[in-house]
Amino acid sequence: MKGKTIRVTLLVGVFFSVLVALAMAAQDRYTVKVPNGLGFADFRGYEDWQVVGPSQTDAAKVMRVILANPVMMQAYREGVPGNGKPFPDGSKVAKIEWEPRKITDPPFSASAPDTVPGPLKEVEFIEKDAKRFSDANGWGFAAFKYDTASDAFTPVSLADKPPQGNDARCGTACHKLAAAKDYIFTDYPKR
Fold it and tell me: What is the pLDDT of residues 129-184, one digit of tens each?
């Protein structure tokens, strides 16, 4: 009887040890960041920010939603950047990208299906901090690809398609195209 109790106790102990090890191995996304420190922890709660607008990028075969924190939303409401003023420090953007998925189940039509978000592909962040990112027009960038199998995020790299640097200045060259709009592509559309 005593031997059976010891075996059961050991089995339960091993079982809980395995559970703890698996839990510890699971990624805490708030520890993931790109070189120069920009990461998920800087954008905690982004999932609840207000939607600026959607974006469909056919070339990259993604659909995304662009979110902004309250600082940036207030600037948008005040007319930035159309009023010639820059976004204030503390402005933050989150872009969530998914692979497009067609809905063909009833009541939707197979001949004209709706397109909705499918698997998560990437999350990107942009932050305005003129001192910290003075050599990048005041903006810092981070892009993280999502791996469904591991349920984990990693910084994008030059090996990805499209290739992209993975430090806080990775978006600087691309965003120069929007210099007249304080380096932000997405306008705040009429509601």
Answer: 999 999 889 999 899 999 999 999 998 877 776 656 666 666 777 788 888 999 89
What percent of the chain has pLDDT above 70? 79
SS3 letters for the chain? CHHHHHHHHHHHHHHHHHHHHHHHHCCCHHHCECCCCCEHHHHCCHHHCEEEEEEEECCCCEEEEEEECHHHHHHHHCCCCCCCCCCCCCCEEEEEEEEEEEECCCCCCCCCCEEEEEEEEEEEEEEECCCCCHHHCCEEEEEEEEECCCCEEEECCCCCCCCCCCCCCCCHHHHHHHHHHCCCCCCCCCC
The full length of the chain comes to: 191
- Whether the CB-CB separation of 123 and 96 falls below 8 Å is answered with yes
Instruction: Please state, in angstroms and rounded to a whole number, the distance separating the CA atoms of residues 9 and 187.
Output: 62
How confident is the model over 102-140, as pLDDT tens digits? 888 877 777 788 888 999 999 999 999 999 999 889 999
Residue showing tokens 């031997």: 3
